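Worked example 2:
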Amino acid sequence: MHQRRSAVVALCVLVALVTGACMSATTSRVTAEDGGAVRSNDGLDVQTSGRSALQSLRDRPGVQVPEGPAPAAPADPDDPTPGHDEPQWQLSPQWALNPELLQGTPRFRQLTRKGAPTPGEQPNIVMITTDDQNVNEMRWMPKTRALLGGPGATFSDSTSPHPLCCPARAMTLTGQYAQNNGVRSNFWPSGGYYKLDNTNTLPVWLQDAGYETAFMGKYLNEYGLLDPQEVPSGWDHWRSAVSGVYDYYDYAMNEDGRVEKYSDTYQTEYYADETESLIAQMSADDQPFFLWQAHLAPHTACAAAPSNEGCWDSATPSMSYARSFDNVPLPQRRVPSYNEADVSDKPQWIRRPRLGQDEEQALTEQFQRRIESLQDVDDAVARTVSALDEAGELDDTLIIFTSDNGYLLGEHRFSGKIVGYEPSLRVPLMMRGPGVPAGSRSTETVGTLDLAPTVADAAGATPGRDVDGRSILPVAAGDARGWDTLLIQGGPRLPKGGDEWIYRGVRTDRYTYMEYRRTGERELYDRRRDPHQLRNVAGDARYAAAQAELRRRLMALQDCAGADCRQRFGPVVGPQSPAQR
């Protein structure tokens, strides 16, 4: 177990929220807004090569970072991720943090046993989330795929309709779009922790249904800013960073209202340790429990830096996995949208110079640090499943794994999130447990706003809000359809943006349509013919009927609430020839 060192945490000086910068909880260091990487002088949203993350590890007393990459294992034949023909890179045993949970061991095979448990009255529920993880990066999390996807369900079209940290987390807690829960961005006055009514969220509903609740990880942006000792409503056990939120090693945790400082324990390992302890504690009686393990990885890091340097850097891997994927090329380079040749049909804010050699190398190293940081999450998933099994709770526990939003690494010359393109919108989603068919795969569209209704449905809890989403348990069982048309949107990135949306649009199983209210620009992509979204066909006469119908749906959904958000519109017409028009 990690060693704890108590420290006095200074009260936070209130941030100048009307500026375009933010402070990370109780830290006094001014940082760039948490909506993607910082824009550099050449207009690229990549700031650093990623080597400083490794250097920060080497600078820590007593830490030895390996100098060479770990050898790659053969391809994983059980990879459930579609369209992945690249080698499945895995770590050899000498790099494994938890050797007893390596794939292929008797213990690991025991935990991946298949079979759909019979639904109980009230199962335990564990939700594990990552931060900014795109779908493709699941191929470097073999334990998670084997432990959750194998004995459970995988959703291949899971979408984060508002792909930014705080709005996505607010959606997870409420089952509502931002127009209904009030959180449009990461910061006050258009978003952040204090914009959400925390007295009416998922953990409160679960407590009312008889659940013991626990949270550990990154909560909503600006949490702890006014009171670092605050524990939000609904949580019986609370572990959340209040300073150093984006520093993987040097941070302060609010532990049930008491602030503790850490400087030598990797955040992901801390959450895994606390999860094991709390599962053992909460399993001691018959009361069902809900635990949310919200990881920072693979989000960019904001470690201590000289005053003249920027803050955001690549994710910091643990010393166990640093440099373990230096031999893995950036997979985005193989897709046509990477460093897109022609972006003249894209909105003005996406048009930027093509990536240069240095910028491409920076993206490669950023990617390598990201998947290294995800190795500890992969271990944490295995440790969580093992802890549930040891407590005799595994078969009675619904486990959900997902990310708050996706992330671009050079597609359309962009690095970051919030945009309405597929790598930003799509997120991994797997779940196993009571009522979930083992080894099943759903191609139905589901969304982040379905998480709260799903958990409430499994728990027999009554939401205190008129939720916009729906339970996906019937979808997993093949008894219900997913979304017909999903509202997608991006709120203001900075406080000075007020309540104005960057874009709003809709996504169907074939089309993505977006409107930029400030500029009047439009985007329309026929993903069936153009899956990489290279050709904006807005204004194309062949798609006039489709565009008109998608705009009608946007007008119907932009102010929707509750059941009105879930209405089914039917199929959208395809492109039409002059004779058909």
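The chain has one domain: 5-64+123-483. Residues 5-64+123-483 form a domain with the Alkaline Phosphatase, subunit A fold (CATH 3.40.720.10).
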